[in-house]
UniProtKB/TrEMBL annotation, chains A, B:
This is carbonic anhydrase. Catalyzes the reversible hydration of carbon dioxide to form bicarbonate. Its cofactor is Zn(2+). One of its GO terms (molecular function) is zinc ion binding. It catalyses: hydrogencarbonate + H(+) = CO2 + H2O. Binds 1 zinc ion per subunit. Zn(2+) binds at residues 36, 38, 89, 92. Keywords: Metal-binding, Zinc. Its EC number is 4.2.1.1. Pfam families: Pro_CA. Belongs to the beta-class carbonic anhydrase family.
Length: 164, 164
């Protein structure tokens, strides 16, 4: 039995106890969360979110590339969110390598160099500041006055704000 | 009090009851989930995930662009995941507009046309098939034999598989 099959059993249990009725498409709390994909960062649990509350956007590092700017533009323009919470975390995998080395390793193995930046970073706080700045500089995201950046501490479960 | 401030109170409660000890960086279940950012799709709840179990990658639509390929490459190459679960869902916002109209609206308002595709789609099942195909065609993602696509039904809480 694959891990996927195992998780599908959980999904059947979720459906069996499903009693939410009809929830509307726009997030009830009008907020979008952009966070790292890290397995230890449970965005719903941490922020006390429930089904229907918030958009959750995640990727390796919680970085801001064209695709996150796309998701945030859609979130605000079509679905009415107004606040953005950005979350990086301690002990992040993105701190353990460099773009050059990662891409060179892939080139050596596959013969092709990736057409993307790996978005590795060396300083956690600085990358939160950078990511918030990328959002605030984006002309396609209409609401940029409530964008705040945080670091989640995987060791303590604490969320602390990073001030620019 | 902003919504962000309200969620920070929840985060303090989470930290106060935090008792996970040290969880390792690589996901315990060796799986990466790629899903839509939709507020009604609670990936942890649906799949029964706990802190430390799985990478969770999310964006508007649960689509596969360069940034998702980057996250999946990092997930597998640096952090050892081997299976991929892709989840779209019914009543998705991406079914309600077209790329051309969305980008033209932004151009009319800001004077600048976005440098990204909005990735809207007209057929839900077909986009799951497309997204799985994009992953399977990616030369930088090493493990592509366990990639499965699903549609989450926001009306029933049920997860159903889409076969290519």
């Amino acid at each position: 039995m694959s891990v996927t099959d195992e998780l599908l059993v959980n999904a059947e249990r979720y459906a069996a106890s499903f009693d939410q009725g009809h929830l509307p498409l726009p997030p009830a709390k009008g907020v979008a969360v952009l966070a790292c994909m890290d397995a230890r960062l449970n965005v719903y649990g941490l922020l006390g979110l429930r089904e229907g509350d918030a958009h959750v956007i995640r990727n390796a590092g919680g970085v801001v590339t064209a695709d996150e700017r796309r998701s945030l533009a859609i979130s605000q323009r079509l679905l009415g969110t107004r606040e953005i919470i950005l979350i990086h975390h301690t002990d992040c995998g993105m701190l353990t390598f460099t773009d050059d080395a990662f891409k060179e390793g892939i080139r050596a193995e596959t013969g092709i160099k990736p057409d993307w930046s790996a978005e590795a970073f060396a300083d956690l706080e600085e990358d939160v500041v950078q990511s918030v700045a990328r959002i605030k500089a984006d002309p396609f995201i209409p609401h940029r006055d409530a964008v705040r950046g945080f670091i989640y501490e995987v060791e303590t479960g604490r969320l602390r704000e990073v001030k620019a």
